[in-house]
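User: quick one, fold this
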Amino acid sequence: MAYEYGVITDEIDQDFGKACKIASDGGMSYVELHNLWDNNVHELTNEELEQAKNILDRNNLRTHLICGMFFRPFSLGDVELASMENHPRFKEHMDRLEIFIRIAHYFGAPNIRTFGFTRDVGGSNPSPRSPDGGGIPDSTLAMISKGLQIACDRLATEGLTLALENARSLYANTGGNMRRVLDAVDRPNLKIIWDPANAFVAGEDPAEGFKQVKGEIVDVHCKDAIVEDPSTGRTTWARIGTGGTDWATQLNLLESEPVSTLTVETHWKCESGDRAESTMLTYASLQEFVNG
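Assistant:
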């Protein structure tokens, strides 16, 4: 498989120009837009968005994913299924989605990231890890699916895809839980951002999690982690290859997937603490696995 490499730019630097130059000089072909100049992507002014686009053009980079904070943080504790769409927090996030749509069209990005709503119990670090990531109660799944259906239907009118990323603190935190969400939502424009390290810290075997989302993946976020204290579930981020994600197995599994993008999201900090150095070291480790 011939992969393209990219990065979430704030993993390198909040200075978007600096981050893009480092990414381009390192041979990356795309970036994902999350936090630029200390602002979430949906908070950027029109002038800042224009500046960002010019920076991408100068560095021969593109973006395929608007990596915003949609349905995160978002507790469902005070939400009722029947009136979910009228809840002020839901309306706020749908307004945010309209901004993401505008940004996606401006940058020619086909995908907008979403999350699977915030767990009201568990999901922190430390917290108990389990193969099912804590599961999803049926009543909660009904609310998750309704919210994502509304968002998917809105994006369908724009020709855009909603890409669900797994993270420990969310209900959709493992491959197994994302499969439950995919099946419940049942929309062709709901796809997956697969983050095997996030599945690992939640307690799932990433190889088993992959099997649950196989065929639905549009992007892969790449990092690693170790379990510091099994009794409490405390984990910490690690350089790719030094943790429990088993990237050799993940890459073997990905050979059969149509996805061709590997996005560095290291979170780990090297000895110097420098974000750019940490990211490029993780990037080098990832390339070693791919080429090895």
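User: anything notable?
Assistant: The two ends are 12 Å apart (CA to CA).
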